[in-house]
Amino acid sequence: ISTQDKNRRTGMVEIEVLKLALAKEEVSIQEYQEMLINHPALGEILSFLLTEEQKHKKLIEKKIAELSCC
């Protein structure tokens, strides 16, 4: 197996792992959105946590795009 083939396979595995992480972030985002609606008294902390999950999602999407391009 050539080095290029190994790198391609490693990239594919990494993308799959990142897709799993992305799915978990999306679930977390949905859960925080629901909690914000149902528990407005916790709005400040829940908004902060929601924002953090959205940042994580963007980072993962960016890395998936980087790995997919080559």
Mean pLDDT score = 91
Largest sheet: none
> What is the CA-based Rg, rounded?
17 Å
Which descriptor suits the 3D outline?
Answer: elongated
Order of helices and strands: HH
| Number of H- or I-type helical stretches | 2
Terminal residue distance: 18 Å
Tell me the number of strands. 0
Briefly note the structural class of the backbone.
mainly alpha
- Helicity range of the residues? over 70%
Q: Give the low-pLDDT segments.
A: none
Structure description:
The chain has helices at 3-38, 43-69. With 70 residues, it is mainly alpha-helical. The longest helix is centred in the N-terminal third of the chain and has 36 residues, at 3-38. Helix 1 (3-38) runs antiparallel to helix 2. The two termini are 18 Å apart.
Summarize the structure.
The chain is mostly helical and 70 residues long.
Strand-helix topology:
Layout: H1 3-38, H2 43-69
Helix pairs in contact: 1-2
Feature tags:
70 residues; mainly alpha; elongated
